[in-house]
Amino acid sequence: MSPRWLKLKAACEYASLGQHRLKELAFRGVIRGYPDPDSGRGDWIFDRLSLDAYRESPLKGQVSPKQKAMMIMEGMR
Questions:
Q1: pLDDT value of position 70
Q2: CA-CA distance, 62 to 38, in Å (whole number)?
Q3: Are the C-beta atoms of residues 50 and 19 closer than 8 Å to each other?
Q4: Full-prediction pTM beyond 0.85?
Q5: How many Cβ atoms are within 10 Å of 15's Cβ, its own excluded?
Q6: What's the confidence (pLDDT) of residue 77?
Q7: What are the residues whose beta carbons fall under 8 Å from the beta carbon of 29, sequence distance 6 or more?
Q8: Which residue ranges of the chain lie beneath pLDDT 70?
Q9: Side-chain half-sphere exposure of 8, counting CA atoms within 13 A
């Protein structure tokens, strides 16, 4: 069983992307990722399912308005 949330290094390996690219995608709302609220060092975590969706998307990096709204709403919880 794979964990849902991946630390930065594991997310880079999983998605075959660099650290800066992952953070950029997270800032743009393309994938879900942010500094881990439980880490005192500001370590980043990324949602494995959003990485899967990004990699499976035929228009890499394109997020539908509905997907973006859902990501925003989930972040407010």
A1: 77
A2: 30
A3: no
A4: no
A5: 20
A6: 53
A7: 63, 68, 71, 72
A8: 58-63, 75-77
A9: 17
